[in-house]
Amino acid sequence: MDTLTLQSPLDMHLHLRDEQMLQLVAPLTSQTFSGAIIMPNLVPPVDTKEALIAYKSRILQAIDDHQFEPFMTLFFKEYSKEFLESVKDEITAIKLYPAGITTNSEGGVESIDVISLAPTLNAMSELGIPLCVHGETNGFVMDREKEFMNIYDALASEFPDLTIIMEHITTKEAVDMLDRHDNLYATITLHHLLITLDDVAGGMLQPHLFCKPIAKRYEDRDALLEVALNAHPKVMFGSDSAPHPQHAKEACGCAAGVFTAPIALQVLAELFEKHDKLENLQKFISDNACDIYNIKPLKKEIKLKKYPFEVPAYYKKGDQQVVPMYANQTIQWSLM
Amino acid sequence: MDTLTLQSPLDMHLHLRDEQMLQLVAPLTSQTFSGAIIMPNLVPPVDTKEALIAYKSRILQAIDDHQFEPFMTLFFKEYSKEFLESVKDEITAIKLYPAGITTNSEGGVESIDVISLAPTLNAMSELGIPLCVHGETNGFVMDREKEFMNIYDALASEFPDLTIIMEHITTKEAVDMLDRHDNLYATITLHHLLITLDDVAGGMLQPHLFCKPIAKRYEDRDALLEVALNAHPKVMFGSDSAPHPQHAKEACGCAAGVFTAPIALQVLAELFEKHDKLENLQKFISDNACDIYNIKPLKKEIKLKKYPFEVPAYYKKGDQQVVPMYANQTIQWSLM
């Protein structure tokens, strides 16, 4: 039987939420990942040292006995250099959301202009704190990421020593940006390597595949696949696994987010194998991220086997019930 | 108070379904419309004279005591001229669906090429039976209608005496086709004059606004508005009102269709008034259709007033419950 061993897999973009949902989803990541960048869009957002430390502590209590490191982030707002110095050792990055662009981002940045953001971004640059960005405008849904490219251009040019991560990129235009600025990097989700808008709304409407940024065109997906499968040194895996309760996903007015945490490694193995690129998965899933963020992950070996696995209809703990991608379907790789 | 009188409003593209759903929705159209083109995509499709006559009779029983004429259509397949002659007086048009393109279209045409369809289309042409077309390819969801334009080109050129209706057009490209062929016409829905993909999937996902063809870009909607508001002589109103049970619309894997029948006239009045084009609504809602189809509708006068109306959360009869567009919202015109 084919097997695969991955060293210290990292999820460089993860939503763990809080309270009961945190209890449900944290172990589903910590069972297979060595660490993850934890997104700060709670209600209220994580924007103080106290909130950050308390959230990290709640996460560590929620991961069962797994060996797992939560790489914490702050919700971007104007921070003083003094504050950033005081919190530097507790955080791995700061995440910038345009206001209202996705779940719990209402307190985000109203207008992204390099002048008003300069004091905070210069301080981050000097202290070596990376900036993670949800790169969408409030334009037409299929154009939002593309329209954001000139903001990335401005940020990358104006702050050449700032490490900037284009989070969950979905377009050919974002892929093309990687070669334009030395300090621009990207995370790519599992689902954006697999689906297009056709999967969300081309047949029946599929709320469990509805996410932000929305899945785009085939040529966009192919551009993402190209850099992911070849483990382009500036891209890394970030699931953007974003749990919502099943009733909220299947209701009228469903929230955006695809829940992939428990099946991400297995499906990535299937995808990379299908394209005969299994040898590049280690870089995509861990090594590139270590280089980009300059981190040393907890040592953790994950073994996978090529053996069918039927994905559960849902994962449940207490009152929380979440439907994963590929629910009730069979995937071709399993955890050993 | 502002009032408006419409003479014999016609809905030139309507789904009435069958059985309990027919009982629920037929009176919601017949209360305000003088007549409607009835789509034949039942299970099985309406493709025999017997099925057609029986369906018409079920419709006439379902419309309460309203004065209303169902303009019947057959589901397109290869028909002999002899058959078409025998059914000519019972039908107003024949509706062509590409196979699998929308609800109950599995029995549609696998490949639309003018050579194989020529015998049927020539017979229709000679007998003066219009062809209604769901014009979408099986390509990427945002491109399906645009990609269909060369099929319209081929049909219109090859059968110059055939009246061809591009049903529920959603793109600028389809609007541009109107001036390219004398024998091409179009219906436009209410919802495609109002929404874009942003309304379906730009914020939360809105299953009740999910339809086929899917709503497109702002420039597409503006092109539709331009010809509708100015009552371009080759366009006419066709609601494509397409009821699905509420549980099917709000479930995982929701069906395509927007239910607008009970609010269509009122919202059209609001829209045309907003753009200061109220004087053109009579043409869009009836006169153009009479000219294009060469029909004389039942005389029916509908009076509207500019007075707020709160749209119900749903319409219900027996086991059937359907959510209309603008459910729980207030629209600015009412029936008198």
Sequence-ordered SSE layout with sheet pairings:
2 copies of one chain form a homodimer.
Chain A: E1 3-7, E2 10-14, H1 19-30, E3 35-38, H2 49-62, E4 69-75, H3 81-87, E5 93-96, H4 114-127, E6 131-133, H5 144-158, E7 164-166, H6 172-177, E8 184-188, H7 197-201, H8 218-229, E9 235-237, H9 246-249, H10 264-274, H11 281-293, E10 301-305, E11 309-310, E12 315-317, E13 320-322, E14 330-331, E15 334-335
Give a short summary of the structure.
Two copies of one chain form a homodimer. With 336 residues, chain A is α/β, with parallel strands linked by helices. Chain A has one domain (3-335): TIM Barrel (Alpha-Beta Barrel), CATH 3.20.20.140.
Short descriptors:
336 residues; alpha/beta; TIM Barrel; eight-stranded parallel beta sheet; three-stranded antiparallel beta sheet
How does this model look, in words?
- The structure is a homodimer of 336-residue chains.
- Chain A has a single domain, classed as TIM Barrel, CATH 3.20.20.
- Chain A contains eleven helices and 15 strands.
- In chain A, the strands form four sheets. Chain A has an eight-stranded parallel β-sheet. In chain A, strands 1-10-15 form a three-stranded antiparallel β-sheet, with helices on one face.
- The longest helix of chain A has 15 residues.
- Chains A and B meet through helix 7 of A and helix 7 of B.
